[in-house]
């Protein structure tokens, strides 16, 4: 097939919305969005209505094995970027539902690809840095994963193993990506959303407390989306799992960048001292060796672009600040 059609599961989520945006910007092919929620609010934060109308949307439940095959057939899907999933707090609150969405949902994606008659050429899916346990400050390579401290991380590690077995038994090729702290417009849920919320708070003139400290690996949303697209487009046979790396910095450093963009916010953004029980830095040499250089937006530029977008949305009365109360 000459025309690519991308199915994005979890398209109304944060990374999903950015992936849709980047696919359209690159004119990469047809885009089919799939999500349980029909609310496109995150898309509207980063895209215009005429851009969104260039896509197709299908609402459905990723845990239902019968949902994806007819979508793949009807829309002639050739590539899947699987981002649907429940995050750490939801998996902790309801592990059974977390397993249904994150593990069974991923099984359903691979089964749909398996039974597509070769139509689906490649799968890119979201794993997570949560597969790692606590570590020292050295950059972590893929093989150091293990001893996760959350159900979410355990589910993601399970998906990596299942992807390997699907290639071993059925030659279904895939790439799983492990991002850490992804930030940008639309990030509004989970502990690692706090740096983005702090940027929003500074724009609207509210104080904000980031619930963790130390260092972490910041990855700009556009770069994360581009990595998923590059992975989906890969013709490498196999079941790969790669770390993603952005720019490792202390929480105090990102606060300093926020204050550069909003000097009036100086002293209003604070952070806790506790360190998250996952690595502060991921080694991305493996993905670079396999797929080539992955885009890297500097932390300074990423913060600048995010806050500029927040200012525009605020001026238009479209910036929801309810998440700052959580």
Sheet/helix structural class: alpha/beta
Number of domains: 2
SSE topology string: EHEHHEHEHHEHEEHEEHEEHEHH
Unreliable spans: none
Number of helices: 12
What gyration radius follows from the Cα positions, in whole Å? 19 Å
Shape: globular
Describe the sheet with the most strands. Answer: 7 strands, parallel
Number of strands: 12
Fourth-tier CATH superfamily name of the largest domain: NAD(P)-binding Rossmann-like Domain
Stated plainly, the CATH topology of the largest domain is called Rossmann fold
Report how far apart the termini are.
Answer: 47 Å
CATH class of the largest domain, named: Alpha Beta
Overall pLDDT level: 97
CATH architect. name of the largest domain: 3-Layer(aba) Sandwich
Amount of beta strand: 15-25%
Helix content: 40-55%
Helix-strand blueprint:
Blueprint: E1 5-9, H1 14-25, E2 30-35, H2 41-46, H3 49-52, E3 56-59, H4 68-74, E4 79-82, H5 88-93, H6 95-114, E5 122-126, H7 151-170, E6 174-178, E7 181-183, H8 194-204, E8 208-210, E9 215-220, H9 221-233, E10 239-243, E11 247-250, H10 251-261, E12 269-271, H11 285-291, H12 299-315
Parallel strand pairs: 1-2, 1-4, 2-3, 4-5, 5-6, 6-10, 7-9, 8-12
Antiparallel strand pairs: 9-11
Helix pairs in contact: 1-9, 6-7, 8-10, 8-12, 10-12
Can you describe what's shown?
The protein has helices spanning 14-25, 41-46, 49-52, 68-74, 88-93, 95-114, 151-170, 194-204, 221-233, 251-261, 285-291, 299-315; strands spanning 5-9, 30-35, 56-59, 79-82, 122-126, 174-178, 181-183, 208-210, 215-220, 239-243, 247-250, 269-271. It has 326 residues and is α/β, with parallel strands linked by helices. The chain has two domains: 5-180 and 221-245, NAD(P)-binding Rossmann-like Domain (Rossmann fold, 3-Layer(aba) Sandwich), CATH 3.40.50.720; 183-215 and 248-278 and 297-325, UDP-galactose 4-epimerase, domain 1. A seven-stranded parallel sheet has the order 3-2-1-4-5-6-10, sandwiched between helices. A three-stranded mixed sheet has the order 7-9-11. Helix 7 (151-170) links the parallel strand 5 (122-126) and strand 6 (174-178). The longest helix is centred in the N-terminal third of the chain and has 20 residues, at 95-114. The termini are far apart.
